[in-house]
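User: Hi! I'm working on a homework problem where we have to compare a predicted structure to a textbook description. Could you give me the structure for the chain below?
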Amino acid sequence: MANQKKILIVDDDPQVHKMLGTVLIPKNYEIDSALDPKRAWEKIKSSPPDLVILDIMMPGMSGIELCQKIRSEKTTKKPLVLMLSAKDSQHDRLTGLKYGADDYVTKPFHVATLVHKIDHMLSK
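Assistant: Happy to help. Predicted structure tokens:
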């Protein structure tokens, strides 16, 4: 399917990948996964997704740093970025948005609400 939207899930928790895949694959999204930001960056550069679902707290490089790299890259198609984090203070949200996230969802999250946000982001 030519207009199938591609989503890259970047989180160091395999359970998050499994759960999101379970709800997003039936909605006809193409799902790819990376357990760390360095691998995610390779995937984004080689085959840019339409949306990156990005955890903030990960080993090696934070989600904020990866978001900054995505936004500063001149050549790649700019994917939408949805931050997904256990950090839920107003400061954390503003930091995520300031560094280029299109939206910010805190963990734990309601799956239906997250899927609705994803559908809305990708329908624009």
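For your comparison, note the following. Residues 45 and 74 are 11 Å apart (CA to CA). The chain has one domain: 6-123. Good luck with the assignment!
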